[in-house]
Write a structure and sequence with these properties.
The chain is an alpha/beta fold. The protein folds into 3 domains: about 1-190, Class I glutamine amidotransferase (GATase) domain (Rossmann fold), CATH 3.40.50.880; about 195-385, Rossmann fold (3-Layer(aba) Sandwich), CATH 3.40.50; about 400-500, GMP Synthetase, Chain A, domain 3. It is about 30% helix and about 25% strand. The chain has helices at about 10-20, 35-40, 80-85, 175-190, 195-210, 225-240, 255-265, 280-285, 290-310, 325-330, 350-355, 370-380, 385, 405-425, 480-490; strands at about 1-5, 25-30, 45-50, 75, 90-105, 125-135, 140-145, 155, 160-165, 220, 245-250, 270-275, 320-325, 360, 435-450, 450-465, 470-475, 495-500. Strand 10, helix 6 (about 225-240) and strand 11 (about 245-250) form a beta-alpha-beta unit. The longest helix has 22 residues, at about 290-310. It is globular. Bound molecules: xanthosine-5'-monophosphate. Xanthosine-5'-monophosphate binds near residues 329, 390, 393, 394 and 509. InterPro entries: Asn_synthase, Class_I_gatase-like, GATASE, GMP_synth_C, GMP_synth_GATase, GMP_synthase, GMPS_ATP_PPase_dom, Rossmann-like_a/b/a_fold.
Length: about 525
């Protein structure tokens, strides 16, 4: 076990994910965790994350110097690096020139962190984001990397197995960053790197059994997407028929999707319930234009449906509600220390619904999308379920800009269906991570036959990504776009113009709302 000690930075789970990629099991703990508790976990190593603070602010997170004397190897990153220097008697000062982004960095190859990276030139690019720097090393340390403005871009105390880097090795922009983390884990901590998703699966099944107990029941909020399907398999493995999967069809699914989900689960030996709630959701959404407001209404309504279903199935206050929340849902909903980008539906349950259950289980909340897929394979889910493209809980409501109506949902469903058909026909469906149509609220003038039209513009979105935290737009060939465009304007009423969205994430997001 490696511990990632969280000081509130943006990339904390990314560090955890990199550690898992190196085949080492890892958990994220708050920096407030008592030293005794950390020691009892007997970790092979500890990684201090970055954080938004300066070590000199009184309110900044601190750590007891004791942690450096446990004999456990430590790697400090960014704020974690400065905190290590400061706590051990070095000096941290404000940079004359702050460094943000790609920075040319010179490494000392004799440092274990940078060892054995044969193709690493002495200079390579690291990703920096800091306004403070280490101006004086603590006793026993030496600098092992520098940049033009930062004399201590990395430092080590080899005897005590303390290492630190000012830059972010966990982000892709740092060349050889993952190798540096791998070096820390294997060369410094002595890990073998044999942890796998299979181990994670076994451990999670066991901890779910422990938490739910011998008689506890679980109501699973199932959207039929990848995350909740994987969670269904995980819970079925853990508690068998004490699991009830509730699939809420809010009338904002894609064409045929509700029936497809039902058919997929009919083949499976799990308790599956479909609730048709179109009326309920559309009436709550009537006239609502603001994206966050739509999300809040839908998130709350999902909660009330689950509460009603729990009553119906005699699920008590001693039982549990489970959701397939994954890490990007948590972080983008602003539940870490990051900003709220958009509130994902499963982070919006009303308090009274949460209180209706003993607890809400979210065992996937540390995983990224591709890790969830790997877990699904581990659990023996068929490839077509595991590789389905994601579909957001709020469904078409966030792909209809402005107020949602049944007519608009039907129009969008028809257009989206054609888009999907043509992409599949062109053999591109496996290459594009997610693609869908958006009904914009923009109307424009067209000419059809001999007459003037004044109809809606449909936007097509297609992205490639692995983790859905960042994404590129898919390079769909013009001929394919042409075929899609021609079919949609001919076959779908109320649409007379098609545009293709060519923004990346960031600065855009994948969904439009
Ligand atoms: P964005 O639009 O934030 O989307 O770039 C990233 C991924 O998350 C999906 N998404 C959601 N998934 N509930 C979900 O389960 C939501 O409320 C939600 N909002 C966005 C989106 O489809 C993309 O795959």
């Amino acid at each position: 076990l490696c511990i990632v000690l969280d000081f509130g930075g943006q990339y904390n789970q990314l560090i955890a994910r990199r550690v898992r990629e190196c085949g080492v099991y890892c958990e994220v703990k708050s920096y407030k965790t008592p030293i005794e508790e950390l020691r009892a976990l007997n970790p092979v190593g500890i990684i201090f994350t970055g954080g938004p603070n300066s070590v000199y602010d009184d309110a900044s997170p601190r750590i007891s110097p004791e942690i450096f004397h446990l004999g456990i190897p430590i790697l400090g990153i960014c704020y974690g690096c400065q905190l290590m220097a400061y706590t051990l008697g070095g000096k941290v000062a404000t940079c004359i020139t702050s460094e943000y982004g790609k920075t040319e960095t010179t490494y000392d190859p004799s440092c274990l962190l940078f060892a054995g990276i044969q193709d690493m030139p002495e200079q390579a690019i690291s990703w920096m984001s800091h306004t403070d720097y280490i101006s004086e090393l603590p006793a026993g340390f030496r600098a092992t990397a520098h940049t033009q403005h930062c004399p201590v871009a990395a430092m080590e105390n080899k005897e005590q197995k303390l290492y630190a880097v000012q830059f972010h090795p966990e982000v892709n922009h740092t060349q050889f960053g993952v190798r540096m983390i791998d070096n820390f884990l294997k060369k410094v901590c002595g890990c073998t790197g044999d942890w796998t998703m299979g181990n994670f699966c076994k451990a999670t099944v066991q901890s779910l059994r422990d938490q739910i107990g011998p008689d506890g029941r679980v109501l699973l909020a199932l959207s039929g997407g990848v995350d909740s399907s994987v969670l269904a398999a995980l819970l079925a493995e853990a508690i068998g028929e004490r699991l009830t999967c509730v699939f809420v069809d809010h009338g904002l699914m894609r064409k045929n999707e509700g029936d497809e989900v039902e058919a997929a689960f009919a083949k499976w030996d799990v308790n599956f319930v479909r609730v048709n709630a179109e009326e309920r959701f559309l009436s709550k959404l009537a006239g609502v234009e603001d994206p966050q407001e739509k999300r809040h209404i839908i998130g709350a309504e999902f909660g009330y449906v689950f509460r009603d279903e729990a009553e119906r199935f005699g699920i008590t206050k001693q039982d549990f509600l489970a959701q397939g929340t994954i890490y990007p849902d948590v972080i983008e909903s602003g539940q870490g220390d990051a900003d709220v980008i958009k509130s994902h539906h499963n982070k919006l349950l009303p308090a009274e619904v949460v209180a209706r259950f003993q607890d809400v289980l979210e065992p996937l909340s540390l995983l990224f999308k591709d890790e969830v897929r790997q877990l699904g394979r581990e659990l023996g889910l068929p490839e077509y379920l595991v590789m389905r493209q994601p579909f957001p809980g709020p469904g078409l409501a966030i792909r209809i800009i402005g107020a949602v109506t049944k007519e608009k949902a039907d129009t969008l469903r028809d257009a989206d269906w054609i888009y999907r058909e043509e992409i599949a026909k062109a053999g591109l469906d496996k290459q594009i991570s997610q693609y869908f149509a958006v009904l914009t609220n923009c109307r424009s003038v067209g000419v059809m036959g001999d007459g003037r039209t004044y109809d809606y513009t449909l936007a097509l979105r297609g992205v490639t990504t692995t983790d859905f935290m960042t994404a590129d737009f898919a390079r769909i060939p013009y001929e394919v776009l042409e075929a899609i465009s021609a079919r949609i304007v001919n076959e779908v009423k109320n649409i007379n113009r098609i545009v293709y969205d060519v923004t990346t994430k960031p600065p855009a997001t994948i969904e439009w709302e």
